């Protein structure tokens, strides 16, 4: 590993606990802003707890890393950098809260999803599930406002800050469009969902705010040129898709694990690349079977077993694994042909390697 | 009417069609930004149609009015002022879209709510209602991002622009807290909902973004001092509550109108001031009846008639009407004792009068 990559790794390892305590302090210091009375109080604690849950902090760390790699000179402990990094984590929390309502998910980071937290506190009540979902929609909105306000308040050159705000809002819009793709593709039969639509959904829904946003914002705050930001966005796109494929594989492994009726993408009717490729690789008879099992929706054990058997038979996991490696390789090659300096390449590679290491087991969520 | 008030009225009447065509053009010009492919295309048209629906434009007009009243010198047709005004209308649209999902409302401004538009297009499909609601949550988020980006891009002194952004984000947070009050109070028995909680809910959920935000942002862009902005917020608070009371009365009149089983606050379990005051004014026996009818939820004709009869018997509408007039009077008196100049008072009175005129029939929604 290059000495630049080594020192970057060391610096990010040091920045990580700093960020955690910054985050905890941030919610303490902002409590007064949310003093809306006793009805709201437990929700602010839920918000705090939700954001503070041990996530992987991929986005904040990528932002700080990119800031350093692309020539930023402030300490990574600088309060404005920490705020910029936090704003991405808050955006992530907002997106997760809404996404979990949309998917009716029950668990997030090993604990109840936000709407479940609220629902459980309401106890036995006719409408508890609906009230939980409704409150979570609004808390998502409040987290969104907080994320933007946190980025707005960084002490950087006004033009840079403005550009960072503008880009953040664009990334959120892209993410929303991706979420809508996810919802609408979910209503279609797998035969009517094109691979490129799934790839587009992955790019919009996840790559933008998970990889492009942190890298581009970090580089932007470091003073990177328009051309550099554009190049970075292009370089990271295949990496983003590779990580999404990794997610697909991990989700499938979870599904095959102990609790097969537990909620996974597969049982939610999600149109994943895994499913589409499995469908492509099966013969007509098996395709019909797969469509039938998927359309029954109710996750009875027989249809679930059949889906699993068909996916295994298709060899889709193997193909996805190959595609993932090709994409990572493609990104490597693109980096070699980019205008990035040797140190910048080493830094970016190190950042990607760190994310790979962190996500091997559980994905990018 | 003072000559200042007369010229303000004339100027706002002229600004109104200008704003409508600005809004229509805005969505045309931004279409490329939302070119996410054919899946997204109809939703962008829905967004455009939803925002362009003939609303009362209370918020944009109040912002433009306040800008003039508090000394702004640009033409009200200035593109940055129009953008600032539009950002409030976009925020309003975002709030309505989420609010309608939360309340499962079916109609908005005489047409289907956003989630209903999506649901209807999906045709007969098991999950159509849920998919419609999910898409609407995300479209709300996208409108929120668009609102903030629209305000961000105004050509004003950076410090003013930043202050406007900061305040907008705070108003949205207040609105969210108010919405959460609305949701959570809705789960309680009317006997356990305090009047001051309902008033707080009204202030947070509606007054902030409907009255305070436009006036304060308009005055801010005109260069108003911190003290003026603070005073304005205080002056408008009773007016906001008065308009909410007006809404309660209008909603009840609609409820008593032709279609009694149509969706109204009353049948949704909303804890309105009307309901609370009716409860207060009834004797113990009638109170129990009211609680019983409210708790059955299912809007069968018998319980609905009984609720209506009890509210009428309580004389709550009369009391609310008196309270509303007292609040408007209180605002008048406060204005007389304020530091506002004669023209400013006349202008603010004219603005409030215009809103009263526009909302007499249908409320502030």
Low-confidence stretches of chain A: none
Helix content of chain A: over 70%
**CATH homologous superfamily of chain A?**
Farnesyl Diphosphate Synthase
Radius of gyration over C-alpha positions of chain A, nearest whole angstrom: 21 Å
Q: What's the tally of helices of chain A?
A: 14
Order of helices and strands of chain A: HHHHEEHHHHHHHHHH
Query: How do the strands line up in the largest sheet of chain A?
Result: 1-2
Give the mean pLDDT of chain A: 93
Number of domains of chain A: 1
How does this model look, in words?
- The structure is a homodimer of 365-residue chains.
- The mean pLDDT of chain A is 93.
- Chain A is 75% helix and 1% strand.
- Chain A has a single domain, classed as Farnesyl Diphosphate Synthase (Orthogonal Bundle).
- In chain A, α5 crosses α6.
- In chain A, β1 and β2 form a beta hairpin.
- A two-stranded antiparallel ribbon of chain A has the order 1-2.
- Chain A has 365 residues and is mostly helical.
- At the A-B interface, α4, α6, α7 and α8 of A face α4, α6, α7 and α8 of B.
Topology:
The structure is a homodimer of 365-residue chains.
Chain A (H helix, E strand, L loop, with lengths): L2 H27 L11 H12 L5 H12 L9 H25 L3 E2 L2 E2 L1 H9 L5 H25 L5 H29 L8 H27 L4 H31 L16 H9 L2 H13 L4 H14 L1 H21 L5 H18 L6
Antiparallel strand pairs in A: 1-2
Helix pairs in contact in A: 1-3, 1-14, 3-4, 3-8, 3-14, 4-6, 4-7, 4-8, 5-6, 7-8, 8-9, 9-13, 10-12, 10-13, 11-12
Keyphrases for this structure?
homodimer; 365 residues; two-stranded antiparallel ribbon; globular
């Amino acid at each position: 590993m290059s000495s630049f990559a080594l020192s970057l790794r060391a610096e990010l390892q040091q920045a990580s606990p700093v960020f955690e305590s910054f985050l905890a302090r941030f919610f303490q210091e902002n409590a007064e802003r949310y003093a809306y009375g006793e009805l709201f109080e437990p929700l602010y604690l839920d918000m705090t707890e939700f954001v503070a849950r041990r996530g992987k902090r991929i986005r904040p760390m990528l932002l700080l890393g990119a800031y350093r790699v692309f020539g930023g000179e402030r300490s990574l402990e600088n309060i404005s950098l920490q705020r910029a990094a936090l704003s991405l984590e808050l955006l992530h929390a907002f997106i997760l809260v809404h996404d979990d309502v949309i998917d009716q998910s029950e668990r997030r980071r090993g604990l109840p999803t936000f709407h479940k937290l609220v629902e459980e506190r309401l106890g036995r009540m006719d409408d508890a599930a609906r009230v939980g979902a409704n409150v979570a929609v609004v808390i998502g909105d409040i987290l969104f406002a907080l994320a933007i306000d946190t980025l707005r308040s960084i002490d950087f050159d006004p033009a840079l800050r403005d550009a960072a705000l503008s880009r953040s809002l664009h990334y959120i819009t892209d993410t929303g469009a991706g979420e809508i793709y996810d919802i609408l593709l979910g209503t279609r039969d797998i035969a009517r969902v094109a691979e490129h639509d799934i790839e587009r959904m992955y790019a919009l829904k996840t790559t933008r705010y998970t990889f492009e946003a942190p890298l581009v914002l970090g580089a932007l705050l470091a003073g990177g040129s328009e051309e550099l930001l554009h190049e970075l966005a292009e370089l990271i796109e295949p990496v983003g898709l590779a990580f999404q494929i990794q997610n697909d594989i991990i989700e499938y492994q979870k599904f095959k694990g102990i609790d097969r009726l537990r909620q996974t993408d597969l049982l939610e009717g999600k149109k994943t690349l895994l499913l589409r490729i499995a469908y492509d690789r099966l013969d007509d008879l098996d395709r019909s079977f797969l469509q039938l099992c998927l359309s029954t929706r109710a996750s009875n054990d027989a249809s679930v077993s059949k889906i699993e058997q068909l996916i295994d038979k298709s060899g889709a996991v193997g193909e996805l694994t190959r595609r993932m490696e090709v994409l990572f390789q493609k990104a490597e090659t693109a980096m070699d042909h980019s205008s990035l300096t040797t140190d910048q390449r080493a830094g970016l590679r190190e950042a990607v390697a760190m994310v790979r290491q962190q996500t091997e087991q559980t994905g990018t969520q």
